[in-house]
Amino acid sequence: MNPEWVLGFQDECWWSRLAQPNLFAWSAANQLRLESKAKDPKGGGPEALACYGILRHDTGGMLLRFAEGRPISAVTEDFLGWACERFATEGKKVFVLVWDNAAWHRAKRVRKWIECHNRRCA
């Protein structure tokens, strides 16, 4: 691969910082039993925290970035801008990104951001 290129494999996750997950957890009394936690009726709101990650093919390293909220289009745009700036400081001119088919990856807003970014950088 061209040394001015970076190939990255990206994914993200998110969770609520305040709500108890609707999963099982160990009991507080150090017993070897599981107890079910009640699901928070409020769900994951503004207290949500997203984590984006890129596994780099060129270095084998991982770039991580945390953001407030769920990984929606606006947060994804901020993440892409951050990654592009970081790669540019390393002298990279092409960022090839492999990611899944999440709704915010396919969103018109994100596609438009990528298109505008590519025009500015051309």
Describe this protein's structure.
It contains three helices and six strands. With 122 residues, the protein is α+β, with helices and mostly antiparallel strands. Strands 5-4-1-6 form a four-stranded mixed beta sheet, with helices on one face. A hairpin with a 5-residue loop joins strand 4 and strand 5 (62-68). Helix 1 (73-89) packs parallel to helix 3 (108-121). The model has no long low-confidence stretch (mean pLDDT 83).
What does the secondary structure layout of this molecule look like, with pairings?
Elements: E1 5-16, E2 24-26, E3 34-36, E4 48-56, E5 62-68, H1 73-89, E6 94-98, H2 103-106, H3 108-121
- The helix content is 25-40%
The secondary structure category is alpha+beta
Rg, Cα atoms, Å: 18 Å
Q: What's the count of strands?
A: 6
Topology pattern, helix = H, strand = E: EEEEEHEHH
Largest beta-sheet details? 4 strands, mixed
The low-confidence parts are none
Q: What fraction strand?
A: 25-35%
Question: What does the overall shape look like?
Answer: globular
Q: For the largest beta sheet, what order do the strands appear in spatially?
A: 5-4-1-6
For the record, give the distance between the C-alpha atoms at the N and C termini, rounded to a whole number: 20 Å
Give average pLDDT, whole number. Answer: 83
- Counting DSSP H or I runs of 4 or more residues, the number of helices is 3
Q: Keywords, please?
A:
alpha+beta; 4-stranded mixed β-sheet; 32% strand; 122 residues; 6 strands
Compact description:
The protein is α+β, with helices and mostly antiparallel strands. Helix content is 29%, strand content 32%. α1 packs parallel to α3 (108-121).
